Amino acid sequence: MKKRIWVFVALIFIVGLSGCGKEKESEIITLKSKNLVVSGNGDFVIEGNAPKGTTVTINNSPITLTRDEDDNFSESIHVNDPIEDASLVAQDMKGNTKEYKLKLDSSKLKEKINAEIQESSTQRALEESQAAAQKSSIDEETARKNQAIAEKLPELQSNLQQIIDVSGGYVTSILPTGGNYDAVDVYIKQDMKYDTEANRQELIDTVGVKVQELITGSLNPENPPLVTFIYDSTKEKMGGNSAFHPERFKLKKQ
Q: Residue 10: inside a domain, yes or no?
């Protein structure tokens, strides 16, 4: 009987010793809730109590806790993307750590992101549609102008030929350098190069104004064309006007 008692006591002692090596893991912080809601702006709030000297990380990012006099805290955390869980690790002043698993409801953030994507896609589609419509309108307007020019070209070319015919041989040809007669080259008989400056100036004034009147009257009344006078043999520039002063015709210095 005594032998059984001693065996029983020995077992209790052994069990007691084995229990002494297993210290129950204690809480480092107290969280009000581990199930949290992420707002549409990507923010969620952790609340609880943490003794002074406690450090906290969430998904390996350090979090600064602002405590009140009772060590209570409430911190707002921001996430850029919807997530369903997060790992909060707390460490006390002795270096002990404990992990707390947070469950996050990110449905509001997902809805906002999807709405922004949809809005962006809709806006982009609208802008593309408006740009296409504007291009189509510009193309139609350009086509109408080109058609009107094409219809008036035969009459314009005939009138320009009359200038050549009545010039007494001094004007040998008038050729457009732009498709819409935005600029023209007037070729002058080479002999005119050796005439007086007064006569040469009179020629480019008279012919230049007449060419401008015919082209603006037929094609583009708002933008007088650039008129360049060229000696027909040497292809030297005789004179002309400029975009800044289309009404003035100047001789090139010889």
A: no
